[in-house]
Amino acid sequence: MARFISTGSCVLDLPMNLPHFPTRGGDVIAKSAGAVVGGGFNVVSAVARQGIETLLASPLGTGANSAQVRLALEAEGIEHVGETLVGDTGLCLTLREPDGERTFITTLGVEAEPSHDEFDSIDVREGDVVYVSGYDLAYPSSAPVVSRFAANLPEGVRLIVDTGPIVNEIAPEHLKPVLARCDLISLNRREAGLVADMTGVSERFAAIRSLVSEECHALVRAGSEGCWVQVRAGAVPERVPAFSFTVVDTTGSGDAHTGVVAASLMDGLDLIEAIRRGNVAAGMSVERLGPARCPSRSEIDDYLAAH
């Protein structure tokens, strides 16, 4: 049976709810509910909740943060197949504004230190889906490892890439080989704009298409508009409408979308129906506080049955 293998690094998320951003040199009183597991965990938990066998290949450490990540993985039935390094998992400070928009500040830990030997030993099988996050292509210590691994995946293995918000900080020698190999690329409107700036191509799908293969599916997540998709080169971009949800916290909504799209494709659904389910997952997740709030398969089924 096909498996979902993620190279996306997990971090410990420290969410802060702000009334507004402080001025430079100023201060603001925030509210926090304590640390939760986030980062790459958002995607693997989303996939696992759809009933897909899910593996995490990024490193974990020996400290308290990594112990919390391990407990979260175990609770979701996710197998860790990466290496264990002396040290600890990094932190992500998530600053959430009243409208649900969030801004991140990340400190790196052992999750950003995979080795070529460890990734070369990953048992990738025909039919598997491999997921890569742009974050890990941007970190200097992980970029060469993740890029080489993803760019050289064997035939019969699908590669999904989520560019992430710092796609413009990824070195071309690490980004281009991965995007040339990927079968599905997912990014939000802001990230698509960054790709347009990077390539000098103003039309966003044309900019994305300049970096990926003709057959690659290109998805641009557009919040309340839904998701735009160009199935292949030359196809007219199509909008898959969103459903109506009340935004509380957008943290991890893109990850929920990507995870459910991936799981749905692995279940044999066509791309448009997979995106439709992803739209439901993203919408339901924004109504919940926290980073890893993707609904289960049955919750999505029930919502679609009622709508």
From TrEMBL:
Transmembrane segments: none annotated. The keyword Kinase applies. GO terms for molecular function: kinase activity. Keywords: Kinase, Transferase. Pfam families: PfkB. InterPro entries: PfkB_dom, Ribokinase-like. The keyword Methyltransferase does not apply. GO terms for cellular component: cytosol. Residues 5-294 form the Carbohydrate kinase PfkB domain. This is Sugar or nucleoside kinase, ribokinase family.
